[in-house]
Amino acid sequence: MRIAFRAAPTVEARRALVTLQHRFGSIEPDEADVIVPLGGDGFMLETLHAHLALALPIYGMNLGTVGFLLNAYGVEGLEERIGRAQRVQLYPLRMQARLGDGELVEAIGINEVSIYRETRQAARLRIAIDGVARLPELICDGVLVATPAGSTAYNLSAHGPIIPLGANLLALTPISPFRPRRWRGALLPSQSRFRIDTLDPKKRPVSAVADFTEVRDIVSVEIWEDRSLAFHLLFDPEHNLEERILKEQFIP
Fold it and tell me: Catalytic residues, which ones?
């Protein structure tokens, strides 16, 4: 098994990288059968973005804080663990943000795409789903669209719902909504296409963020699940991602 190891820029991850490469060799990703990132969830997302074109399975090992998208770190029996790991296929969101001059900026988000206010003033947004204006005006700090894998991240912190893998749903979750006060978001079919317009872009500027890509001063953004792209994550059977997401719903 040809394994390409990648490490976050931390002392612990770099030390583990040296140990693993001494044991299993140093292979470049384009020559590997599997990529093993060493770090936290943020570094895992960086690895997925960096090696999207290779379409290789990713078996992450946690040397960060939370490690929701990673397996436990261990050197012994690593090849056997990878060999029996369960594969999960994730589809990202594609964001297409439009600026005031008409320029379009595209990016992908594995966890979520978020729209934020840029100044002290709340954002004024209009939300349409599949061409139908469902919320004519939302006054808020922002709003986000989350995938099932990302539903336990920022979406959960914003009081959004946890989505089981395979549910074919996306979460639309407001961030500190002011008007309407009682709107807490919605669950939409994964094939839905979202359009969010800023109603006062000069006085109340907003940014759109897809994972690591931020586009400032947008006038509108369209978001949809991109089924032409797929990420393949590997998990130990006893700690698979579906079970982790399920457990999150019962944590008090």
Answer: 41
